[in-house]
Write a sequence for this structure.
């Protein structure tokens, strides 16, 4: 029987988004599984397999799906394992042989696993802003800062499958403590959580300046975005600061792999109108002459709800 | 006629080292051309072609050489051009179509060009410390700091052929002005010139402390090495400082490409006994847990006089 469909699954700390995708990159059916209630991996896998089987059956596509692509935090393409993912209740401080377990629960259907940022990079290259671009760096600005590096049309996995942890390169030497335990990581400043931390610091350091943000308790990056759109100077300064740190880090990334473009994706990338200019300025100020004004900064063109599923699904076509 | 030999040429600011190499990586004959007297590219190419023809003829190998591999500052593998190389008297502020010109002067013999650090990486992979290693980063610690990045057994050239300028990533934000015009580059601290600058700064900042280096005028990195070997505490502190900056930069490079090893090469790499420990400590202190104590720091195993020729020559086998 012909198998013209694949499953794409994007696993996050709260939910697993699952979808059936055709070769044109259309999500034909999708569903969401809550992923923060299971404490052991087998329970999660069993719940996921039931969800996928029901999804295929409801769509009338039993037997027509050729494989499963999965993006997950700390997912390793080479080994198929999820290795010590602190945000997944069922994968903390252990190695879960995820691809093998899911394949078994799905009656032998082949499974490809990678980390969520790599999956996003594949999705962007296959269906999004990076179509036709063979050398680019995907930066995901979400709760954390992730990255997927594409070289000559292939995702860079490195010696051990963990390449592309650019969120944990140093943005500020001796700076803020990051969730990973190190100091000054890009993620500690330029993630959604990082931007909220910057906002709290800004308010403390400028006690005499007014800002809409003073009306908020538990400031989020979304609050900062809303305030910036309303013309709040403090919020705009916070995005200037964030964009500056991103841009100067990007300059170092470019010196490594000489990409054609850097593609931004994730919730914080919605603040394009406030981030684009400071990123481009800081990047070019820190680049060697050979690259000045030559590297494109692109923003994802995929809808966020589809992108994660599409990216993961794209892995499955080669299975 | 069988053509079992290649020519390897390493072009530096002072000399071009030329050699004939066999498939086992033995340098059968070599010679040196002074490269800092010509002010136009054609004069240099003509002198180089004469030198190469004489080398082949003297060795009795006319007609048995299949191609030429060249490593040169700012050499571009894709275009065959040397682009604005400030250290080459005949390639300043211009693009020299080097591969094409040399091939014409050599009666059509094929020529492959890359930058000197990439050539060293190929040499190390083919004949040296990186044999059997498919993912590594070569760092050349010479007058400048260069790098060649190998991924899956292939040199990373990037979108434009200029990938791997890790000497110009930021080691100290807002730090010393580098030869490239930017501030705080790794090269401004960890090259031979950078180490000499650190020595001068150290002496100024510690007026009351004795050091053998106070006896020197125009301190060089070699003076610092000699003093460190003689037990000079200041010189050893200077290497600690240098190794620390290298190690913490290496941690960021590892987060990019997840290599199996970092290989050090060049004049300054001779100071292994003083650099190894501070590099390894700073690197591991700045790595994510998944890489701590896992990435090897290797020192080139090729003799320096051969390595440059061997590396360049290795490019020519695929012509």
């Amino acid at each position: 029987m012909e198998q013209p469909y694949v499953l794409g699954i994007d696993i996050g700390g709260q939910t697993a988004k699952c979808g059936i995708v055709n070769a044109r990159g259309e999500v034909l059916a999708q569903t969401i599984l809550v992923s923060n209630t299971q404490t052991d991996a087998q329970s999660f896998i069993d719940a996921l397999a039931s969800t996928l089987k029901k999804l295929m059956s409801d769509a009338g596509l039993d037997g027509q799906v050729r494989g499963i692509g999965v993006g997950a935090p700390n997912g390793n393409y080479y080994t198929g394992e999820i290795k010590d993912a602190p945000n997944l209740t069922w994968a903390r401080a252990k190695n879960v042989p995820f691809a093998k377990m899911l394949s078994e629960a799905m009656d032998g259907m082949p499974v490809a696993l990678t980390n969520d940022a790599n999956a996003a990079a594949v999705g962007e290259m296959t269906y999004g802003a990076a179509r036709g671009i063979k050398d680019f760096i995907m930066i995901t600005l979400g709760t954390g800062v992730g990255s997927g590096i594409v070289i000559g049309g292939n995702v860079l996995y490195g010696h051990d499958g963990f390449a592309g942890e650019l969120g944990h390169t140093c943005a500020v030497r001796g700076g803020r403590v990051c969730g990973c335990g190190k100091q000054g990581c890009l993620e500690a400043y330029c993630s959604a959580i990082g931007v909220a931390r910057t906002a709290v610091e800004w308010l403390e350091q400028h006690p005499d300046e007014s800002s809409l943000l003073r009306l908020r308790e538990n400031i989020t990056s979304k609050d900062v975005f809303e305030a910036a759109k309303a013309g709040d100077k403090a919020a705009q300064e916070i995005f200037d600061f964030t964009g500056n740190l991103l841009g100067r880090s990007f300059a170092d990334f470019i010196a490594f792999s000489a990409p054609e473009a850097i593609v931004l994706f994730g919730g914080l990338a919605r603040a394009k109108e406030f981030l684009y200019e400071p990123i481009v300025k800081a990047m070019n100020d820190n680049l060697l002459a050979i690259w000045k004004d030559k590297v494109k900064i692109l923003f994802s063109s995929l809808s966020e709800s589809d992108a994660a599923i599409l990216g993961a699904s794209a892995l499955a076509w080669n299975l």
